[in-house]
Amino acid sequence: QVQLAESGGGLVPAGGSLRLSCIASGRIFSNYAMGWFRRAPGKEREFVGGISGSDDSTYYADAVKGRFTISRGAAKNTMSLQMNSLKPEDTAVYYCTAGESPPGCSGYGCLGHLNDNWGQGTQVTVSS
Do 122 and 6 touch, CB atoms closer than 8 A? Predict the structure, then answer.
């Protein structure tokens, strides 16, 4: 029973920046991974990035690597997605997600349950 709430979406010109925030509530623990997925119009959901519940290592999709940065807040139930150098193809509904990192996990395996909990999404539109 984890509830997630995203905020910070909006309209931004290409090359601009936007910062999304997520707050998790409910039964969430320090070993929970948190991250972001997105869905562009007419397309499948895709992984954007995540932060491990084991060691706070971050992982990113190739499409956003070097442009997007995920970080936790002072409390591990908060997370932000800093998006820089935005492109029109980044236009999508962005979803905060969370799930337990499996015991003894390492690497991408720590994000294996990132789909367990979803927020309602926040719209990001990048104009050209």
Answer: yes
C-alpha 6: how far from its chain's center?
9
Half-sphere CA count of 51, side-chain side, radius 13 A: 19
Condensed to tens digits (0 to 9), the pLDDT of residues 25-46 reads: 998 878 899 999 999 999 999 9
> How far apart are the C-alpha atoms of 71 and 113, rounded to whole Å?
18
Using CB atoms within 10 Å of the CB of residue 3, give its burial: 0 to 12 exposed, 13 to 18 middle, 19+ buried.
middle
For 41, the 3-state DSSP assignment is coil
Q: How many CB atoms within 10 Å of residue 36?
A: 28
